[in-house]
Prior knowledge:
The structure holds two protein chains of two kinds. Chain A is mainly alpha-helical. Chain A has a single domain (13-190), classed as Arp2/3 complex 21 kDa subunit ARPC3 (Orthogonal Bundle). Chain A has nine helices and no strands. The two termini of chain A are 21 Å apart. By secondary structure, chain B is mostly helical. In chain B, 70% of the residues lie in helices and 4% in strands. At the A-B interface, helix 1, helix 2, helix 3, helix 4 and helix 7 of A face helix 3, helix 4, helix 6 and helix 7 of B. Chain B: Keywords: Cell membrane, Membrane, Transmembrane, Transmembrane helix. Chain B: The chain crosses the membrane at residues 23-56, 63-83, 103-126, 146-167, 182-202, 236-254.
Amino acid sequence: MKKQSMWSLRLSTAALVLIPVAVGVNYIGKLLAALLKLPLWLDSIGTVLAAMLGGPIVGALAGAINNIIYGFTDPISFVYAITSVAIGLAVGILFYKGFITSWGKAVVAGLIIGLVATVVSTPINIGFWGGTTGNIWGDALYTFVLAKTDSTWLASLLDEIVVDIPDKIVVVLVSYGIFRGLPQNVIQLYTNNEKIETLD
Amino acid sequence: MKSISLYEEGTSFVHDVDPITKLWYIPFAILIPIILPLFTVSFLLIGLSLALLLAAKVIRKTIPVFGFVFLILITVVLIQGMFKPENETVLFQIGPLTMYKEGLLFALTITLRVINIIGAFMILVLTTKPSDLVEALVRKGMSPRIGYVVVSVFQIIPEMMATMSTITDAQRARGMETEGKLLVRIKAFLPLLGPVVLGSLINTKERAMALEVRGFNSQAPKTFLYEEKTYQFSKILQMGMLLLTVAAVVWRIFL
């Protein structure tokens, strides 16, 4: 009863159907964060959940399609599709390696994913905006570091880190909580082992 | 149910251009200013995009997007104008703040680049129905399964938003507070999000089975519900953009 490789490109129907739901969850998370005026984005819960359930390929696809579709309401997000893909891949790999198994480990995973997102986003921020992110706290830090050290890269990296890491930790915690609340028969749908279920 | 796409129906010639051609216009508009880094070139391309948006009568819908972008660009201008490490030449002073020439020129480059890219995307987004674009891509060889995924997002999101507003009402009726201190608002996040997400994920099982039953995984070649639309000038426009790109490269190398 060997698990299918996590890199398998043969996506099941269930895995494909998961992607639009993931995009929807991202959208709702972002909407709720704005509605409740929370100081985080919380717009990648769906991508993280899709990666937990379907693996890195589904996570990456969900991330890419998510940003392409957001692009139809806000063209800037096209540019950040690469970040979403990286998040999906990172969560998928961590989860399939069996790393995210407790709340404590979920926090560490959030930290790692926040770092991955930062490393991928910083060059985009520099190329597109000259290094700032549009977030007040991040940009204040950017200005401070730039004035002190004259390094655009360091300033931009820190600018992104202070926003991304808390956001991704909360996102992974929320997703892990939801994942634990899912009924077994839904999780089973995605585990891809050729086991036959009986009806009793 | 409100659609999430910004597409606006219309009859202009921009609406009648092949979605694939509009898609090609985006890399074209991004590449040309990279090949020829002159302010004039960027201004020309932005002018072209704005003219096309005007001709398509969708320029009003670009205002909220550009408004949001300008807000970020103002911080870019201020921060780069004052703090860019290469700043040397003082341009003017307002109170204790000094604006430098190098930083402002850099900010102008960024502003032009961003407006140019957004303009090119807006042409595609505002004048192309998402399902038309997906259909055109599937005809070009994209997997119809991925095509289904993209199109179904546009159906699922309004559905999930409706569910969310039902759940918000239900939770409020039970006395949950959604306004007030940060802690109160944080506590409201999970009870609002949880049920929508769990419900939607459980629904995927049924959706997957419904699709399987209808031959979603069948290897037989797929047919299309609608007849292929014919677009004029697709080849000419695409060739024109290619030629202009080649001309730009030649100009950059030899002049």
